[in-house]
Design a protein that fits this description.
The chain is an alpha+beta fold. It folds into three domains: 1-95; 97-171; 180-294, Glucose Permease (Domain IIA) (Distorted Sandwich), CATH 2.70.70. The chain is 40% helix and 26% strand. It is built from four helices and 14 strands. Strands 3, 6, 7, 8, 9, 10, 11, 12, 13 and 14 form a ten-stranded antiparallel β-sheet that branches. It has a two-stranded antiparallel sheet with strand order 1-2. A two-stranded antiparallel ribbon has the order 4-5. Helix 1 packs parallel to helix 4 (139-170).
Length: 299
């Protein structure tokens, strides 16, 4: 038995033409079923899209959470580094302060001595490398690079200041004993022969037994009797600087001992080639005698 068929008539109002659409019951059932299921399919489609969007939002939220944790960690690191830099700057400010008298004495040192203290530090600071493509990943990366560069420069400046401080401690800038100058640096009449003679030191006359003090930080290089100097102490201050203290009546140090400026080395006497109690005070730079008055800044 044939399936029933249905006809739909469609008439045009303008022309009056009539069109017939004929279809079977099966086709009508399919069309009806599609019409009924369309809202359901649409709802399911929206639900699937909503779930995908929710999942996307979850992923984005997790990414933001991780980025925030990274930012907090980076911010903590940067804060610690900035605090460290501030502390370093304060320390450098304190360390870099020299009194005017010491600076004046150091200024009178030969250039070769000052260059030893500098030690070529100008070349120690390498330029900050520039990042090639790709660009830095974040602002925090740029800040880390900048702070690293500043720390490198601070380290170099700290090294320079420490060297200058070491040179200041090694500069023989104070009087070894109080008294009066019985003989200065330069040409003089020899007290024994009466002939012209070059005196490469200062003679400081004072009472016998008066303490003789180191004029700068040093290591004791020699202690003992040495010809015309009599009982003498030789100090090595580093940077090519040495001082000698002659005609002593006794010693208060030993070879190899570390001494600080102002420590007692021995006592005034008249040993060796001397006519009366006094201290023979001599400064040598790279083995060459230097006028002590160029460096002495006070009693």
């Amino acid at each position: 038995m044939k399936s029933p068929r249905y006809t739909i008539l469609v008439a045009s109002r303008k022309t009056g033409a009539v069109r017939r659409l004929t279809f079977s019951r099966r086709v009508a059932a399919c069309v009806g079923l599609f019409a009924l299921s369309l809202p359901v399919l649409t709802a399911l489609g929206w639900r699937g899209a909503g779930e995908a969007e929710v999942e996307s939002l979850k992923v984005a939220n997790e990414t933001l959470r991780l980025e925030n944790e990274s930012y907090r960690e980076a911010t903590g690191e940067l804060t610690a580094q900035i605090t460290s830099l501030q502390t370093a700057l304060a320390q450098l400010g304190e360390q870099g302060t020299l009194d005017a008298a010491t600076r004046a004495a150091m200024a009178n040192l030969p250039a070769v001595v000052k260059s030893r203290a500098a030690g070529g530090l100008g070349a120690a600071v390498a330029p900050t490398p520039r990042r090639s493509a790709p660009a830095p990943e974040s602002t925090f990366g740029i800040l880390r690079d900048l702070l690293g560069s500043i720390e490198s420069r601070l380290s170099s400046v700290r090294s320079q200041i420490e060297s200058q401080q070491a040179l200041a401690r090694a500069t023989p800038s104070v009087w070894p004993v109080s008294g009066w100058l019985s003989s200065t640096w330069g040409t003089r009449r020899d007290p024994f022969t009466g002939l012209p003679d070059f005196h490469a030191a200062l003679d400081i006359a004072t009472e016998r037994g008066k303490p003789v003090r180191a004029t700068a930080d040093a290591t004791v290089e020699s202690v003992g009797y040495l010809g015309n100097y009599g009982n003498q102490v030789m100090l090595n201050h580093g940077f090519g600087i040495a001082t000698r203290y002659g005609h002593l009546s006794g010693f208060n140090v030993r070879v190899g001992q570390k001494v600080r400026r102002g420590e007692v080395l021995g006592y005034v006497g008249a040993t060796g080639r001397a006519t009366s109690p006094h201290l023979h005070y001599e400064i040598l730079i790279n083995g060459q005698p230097t006028n002590p008055l160029r460096l002495l800044i006070g009693r």
